[in-house]
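Lab notebook page, bench 4
Experiment: in silico fold of construct C2
Operator: M.H.
Input chain length: 387 residues
Purpose: comparison with the prior construct
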Amino acid sequence: MPVINSIAAIAPEMAQWRQHLHTIPELGLECPKTAAFVADRLREFGVDELHEGIAQTGIVAIINGQGEGPTIGLRADMDALPITEETGVPYASTHSGRMHACGHDGHTAMLLGAARYLAETRNFSGRVALIFQPGEEAGGGGEVMVQEGIMDRFDVSQVYAMHNAPLLETGTFHTNPGPIMAAADTFHIHLTGKGGHGARPHDCIDPVVAACSMVQALQTIVSRNLKPAERLVISVTQIHTGTTDNVIPETAYINGTVRTFDKEVQAMVVRRMQEIVDGQAASFGLEARLEFEYGYPPTINTANEAVFALGVAAEIAGEDRVVGDKEPVMGAEDFSYMLEARPGAYLMLGQGEGAGVHHPKYNFNDEIAPVGASFFARLVERAQPLR
């Protein structure tokens, strides 16, 4: 079964919603204009309950089906990025230094399209909880919504989300029944030595040399402490030290990211990183302090729900346009918190050629909105059919 006809019919409206949202990008948990627009549309559609102000500007809307049954959750993220837009489109950002560079405007429009259809047809049992989440890029809105109790408050039994995917074939679905995106952690290393004149290094304790050695040593965690079959990324992304050419500085700073899928691997990284920092500090005779910040956990699909979602995707896109063994990517996603709380699945929806996400020339492909909205709608009908 292809895209639902009544959803295909509102494709122009979905594009208008998305392009309006594109003009008003908002950051983190502070998405009041976006949330107000979403709430207005949901009221027009006639949802049964509208709960606002969750995680500051998040929304959960409830649509009742026909008869008793469980509640299925569908999530879309609403926030944008602190990037200056370079698309040149007529509906470009009107908020300087901010843009929808990850397609959350499109995700919101797709869930609104599904909401309109589901509110009109109600061809399902139980309830659907439409989750419009702020703060995916920063602020951990998914975690905040879970902490504020949405899963228990609305009795959500399973939960699903999707993300557009540039460079994957337009309208294709991709996922797997397991890890799909990585945990994202951050490390900070502060080194303190003894500064002095560059012509007299023997009178100094040089943090620059120590920092260079430390960065090289950190790379051995991946190459010498991990089984080759395991996945791990450690990237040093910043080194800051010094102010001029003839002075050895007193301090240095190292910063970077760690990406893992397994908690044991994550724990090994923290242990080895601390050992390297301590050992290198001792060998150079300076002080060093490691700060390890735990970020979003890995996004891990539950097997049954992933297989079920792939079946629904095949109904919409066709069997030959669904990939069920998508290789996990090292990016992160705070839908992970919802999947820690409930079974469910996260899918990628191909949007074709164009700039990648988080790029100033990125733009969501409105052509895929009816595909995504149809998937969301059919997911509800197949998960909770009328008795």
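Observations: The mean pLDDT is 97. The longest helix spans residues 263-284.
Next step: discuss at group meeting.
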